[in-house]
Amino acid sequence: MTMLTVALVALLALVLTVVLFRRQGSSAPPPGPRAWPIIGNILDIPRKSPWKVYARWSEDNGSEMLHLKLPGASILFLNSHRTVQDLLVKRSAIYSDRPQSTMLSELMGMSWVFGLMPYGNRWKDHRRIFHREFNIETLRPHEIRSARRLLVRLLDSSVNYSRELQLTTGDAILSATYGISVNSEDDYFIHLAESLVDALVQVSRSPYLVDMFPAIKKIPSWFPGAGFKRQASKWRSLGVDVQTVPFEHVKSEVDMGTAMPSVASKFLASMRNSSVDCSETQMRSILAEAYLGGAGATVGTLCSFTLAMSLFPEIQERAHAAVTAALGQYRLPDFSDYGKIPYLDALVNEVLRWNPGAPLGLFHAVSQDDYYDGYLIRKGTMICPNTWAVLHDASIYGPSPHEFIPERFLLPDGTRNMVIPDPDGAFGFGRRVCPGRVMGRELLWITAASILVTFQIGEPIGSDGKPLDPTLIEYSNSMSSRPPYFDCLFTVRPGAEALIRCGVEELN
Fold first, then answer.
1. pLDDT at position 443, please?
2. Which residue of 38, 315, 389, 477 has the fewest C-beta atoms within 10 A of its own C-beta?
3. Which interval of the chain is the signal sequence (predicted)?
């Protein structure tokens, strides 16, 4: 063997080694703040706007990913459109699992929530049935009804707009799911769903010790320091009520022949005809999941719409002009107008993008070791899409991503700019995208269109009685985030009250 041959073989070996190393990457995780022994980064978890903090830390580290270490777990935050698409979408086969929480699944008994289920056939079955039952033909009449009932309540200048928006989402979903008509913010069914959502928010805000050290779940409830078990027991009972109380209500109405059309009443009728493909227990949990969805991120999104219209009156007037030009002066919007008012569609997209209702998406989990961008992502790592950061990615959504600019989704001639994607990430990514995303978007659209036609939203006033400073607005730190409460006046537009009254009468 000549020296030239030896040199070529050595060079080839070196090239193959470099290629293999680059393909597999190192054994190091992506960058993140230095972890302390035992407790890891638990003291580093920010309490205010964590989605903004994680995005900033990621940028400071020169990476689009951020790794945090907790006792017994690792979290990887994805802070760009590219990383989310590469991992959660293109590699969804191994990034679609959910991390399992001892507090949620075992102690609180929330394993019936299919959004929290491990990836597999049980999850697929629940999702398939949800999509079949909650289709647009089923949902749209209830969404129109809830939006028009909201307009009547807004005629009363003393109402709390935030509570009315909460009531609107609850009204739409309870009506579609159980045929229950909601007339008051103090409605028992609304309160029941809100109570469980509040519990889930509390669990999501900070890690429970039992999730880091599952063995302590065996401590007796009466033992000092076992308050988490006593609390979990109360929340477990609440979860049972959410599944059973509204369902039993519909059952009794079906028996009396007074049930309104709904997914639940349709299922019960099918059971009598032996034409169902799922059990009552399965349907109870699917209906309850939809029920909880009405008390979640959709409310925050509607509050963001209200905030944006009050902060940016010139955009509000452009949207009003676009909607009235399409509808004329003599009717309220319905879904025959859907997709036919480009500025309104752009406005809805910008509301979803500007401050998404779930700024940190639900955790995914990777089901096997993976290499990406030269880093090792170990099996079981919790993957958190930073939805806020993804939807503020200037490389995708253009310059000034922190500003509210509906026109970013439009061409100069006012038609849709197809280069800028819809902010569908507001509803999740990959195979774990929210099954209620169609209702979330359509309820926002019909509510926004209805308000823009009939009301002018005034300047936002903060809790101190002064005009709200948009640079100081802090959204709540929870899985369903919303802006702080502010006062604003809904002034009915000339001739709109008669239109509102007529629109409600048409429902009857």
1. 96
2. 38
3. 1-27
Residues near 407 by beta carbon (within 8 Å), at least 6 away in sequence: 346
Residue 352 CA to residue 446 CA, distance in Å, equals 14
Phi, psi of 6 (to 5 degrees): -60, -45
Question: CA nearest 308: which of 352, 344, 351?
Answer: 351
Residue 14 has pLDDT above 50, yes or no: no
Closest to 205 measured CA to CA, from 480, 483, 389: 480
Q: For 199-210, write each residue's pLDDT tens digit.
A: 887 887 667 888
User: Residue with structure tokens 């109380």?
Assistant: 245
Question: Distance between CA 148 and CA 236 in Å, rounded?
Answer: 36
Amino acid of residue 166? Q
Could you tell me the CA-to-CA distances from 4 to 8, 9, 10, 14, 18 in Å, in that order? 6, 9, 10, 15, 21
CB 4 within 8 A of CB 356: no
Please provide the DSSP assignment of 395-444 as one string.
Answer: HHH-S-TTS--GGGGB-TTSSB-TTSPP-GGGG--GGG--TTHHHHHHHH
Q: Cα dist. 347→319, 343, 378 in Å?
A: 8, 6, 40
Give the mean model confidence (pLDDT) for residues 204-231: 86
- Segment among 109-113, 145-149, 482-486 with least mean pLDDT: 482-486
Residue 375: which H helix or E strand, with range? strand 375-377
Identity at 417, one-letter amino acid code: N
Which two structure tokens, joined as six digits, stand for 461? 């006033």
Is 303 annotated to bind a ligand? Reply is no
Rounded distance, CA 394 to CA 410, Å?
16
Domains and their CATH numbers in the chain = 50-507 (1.10.630.10)
Helix (H, G, I), strand (E, B) or coil at 385: strand
Which candidate, 484, 478, 386, 477, places its Cα nearest to that of 201? Answer: 478
Alpha-carbon distance of 239 to 197, in angstroms, equals 10
Give per-residue pLDDT as tens, 325-363.
Answer: 999 878 999 999 999 999 999 999 999 999 999 999 889
Intra-chain end-to-end CA distance of the chain, in Å: 94
In this structure, are residues 455 and 448 in contact, taking their beta carbons and an 8 Å threshold? no
